[in-house]
Amino acid sequence: MFKATPHVMTPTIREEPELLHILSVDACIEENGMNHKTEYYVIMQQKKGLVVRRGQPFYLNVKFNRDYDVENDILYIELKLEVEQYNYEQNYKVPKVLIPLLNSGELKTCWVASINSADKKSMRMKVNIPDGACVGKYHIQFDTLTKTTPPSNFTIDECLYIIFNPWCPDDKIHLNDEEQRQEYVMSQKGLIWTGHVGQVEATPWSFGQFNKDVLNIAFHLINVMAYVDVVDRHDPIHVSRALSALVNGNDYDEGISLRKSDDNDADEKQPQSFVGTSDIIEKFLKEKKPVKCGQCWIYAGVFATLCRALGIPCRIVTNFESAHDTDDNLRVERCFDSKGKEVYDDEFRGYSVWKFHAWNEVWMTRYDLNDERFHGWQVIDVTPQRASTRNGSYKSVYARGPIPVMAIKIGKFDVPFNAEYIFGNIDDDVCHFKKKNDDNVKMFYKVDRLRDGPNINTKAVGSLEREDITDTYKFPKDASN
């Protein structure tokens, strides 16, 4: 007979793992800068932030207090978009993106982080930015926890700047030609054509889109001054239109520049004294009010700088013999007395044909118009001649565009925003009237159909030559008509 020996069960005590803490994060400035073509931004060179383009991944090197346990540890990257309270519903908290860390996988259409490689107490993360991400300035926080412990936070002082990506085929501002990308996104120097039809002059302009403060100013305009809703910040249509209204200060919105009007005003600067955007932005930041220097080529130069800083392809276009139609009737009406002096009254209010007028073109897909003909170059006129007459929340705002160049060419005026206005600049009939001496009757006597918009130019790609792009705006006219 065997005597049973009692067996005492000893409970196993499982130790909780030490909480995972992040000790440091390396933003891989040089590597990400090269991959995203953002290495020229002063923000990057001074290591004051990470500038990346949406639609492609960036990398981070992270150091921990212990090895990362793929079975028990959980890690999130939390991005908080820098916004003002009125840019989103007050019932919600600050808009943020939670990016989970996955052990592996490749999801290009959403926010996700994955382990690219791991070593003792360190990890190389690959963070994917979807091509439809909102552009903006984000604050970065890491959250680490286990399945049984509360989270630990690690905040990075430097911000993440996300901009548009013309190299990404799925981005709405994708530009397929590398020479054009270099010219319209990366080039910091350019020419603006001024003068008149008989004597075209090249005015040098320094864009300086990578300079100190430019990117921050662009996001400040979108965030604080333009009131662009958070949900619209993925959209180059809304972003470019908002910027166009803020480059000029004529909406009492404290934009960058006001139109020059009085040579005796001590605050005003001669437009010719500026040869680039940086000096204007520096003066704007210092004085905290619009710089009184605005002429069409100044507005166009500043707007091109901001667009290129945000990654939107942008160029400056000059229209010679540019009509100014004040009532959108597609006619410029001028009246002269018997001595040839022009008459100004309630009926003839000073319609004019300028020697030249400069505006901008931006490149984007117009997905909102459901017509492939309207993809590509879009006109934006930043010069505050008149407030917008329609288009919802932009009514009474000094903004024109983006308007598809093709819509202007075929005369499709129901396309937003204010296509008829740009059409009037290049294709208005100039109607001449004569006033009799003995009464107030004005008699029509001739129409000039060939005068306005005979020559539309921009700087040629990769050279200092002038490119004639008139045929992109206008069909040839029969000189005999």
Explain how this protein is built.
The chain is of the alpha+beta class and 481 residues long. The chain has two domains: 22-163, Immunoglobulins (Immunoglobulin-like), CATH 2.60.40; 178-473, Transglutaminase-like (Coagulation Factor XIII, Chain A, domain 2, Alpha-Beta Complex). Helix content is 19%, strand content 33%. It contains ten helices and 22 strands. The chain has helices at residues 29-36, 42-45, 178-186, 214-225, 236-247, 277-287, 296-309, 405-410, 419-427, 470-473; strands spanning 22-26, 49-53, 57-64, 73-81, 96-102, 112-119, 122-128, 136-146, 152-163, 189-196, 199-206, 257-259, 291-294, 314-324, 331-336, 352-364, 376-381, 400-404, 429-435, 442-448, 455-459, 466-468. The strands form five sheets. It has a nine-stranded mixed beta sheet with strand order 1-3-7-6-5-4-8-9-2. Strands 18-17-16-14-21-22 form a six-stranded antiparallel beta sheet, with helices on both faces. It has a three-stranded mixed beta sheet with strand order 15-19-20, with no helix packed on it. Helix 5 packs antiparallel against helix 7 (296-309). The longest helix has 14 residues, at 296-309. The protein is elongated and about 105 Å long. Residues 1-13 and 392-396 have low confidence and may be disordered.
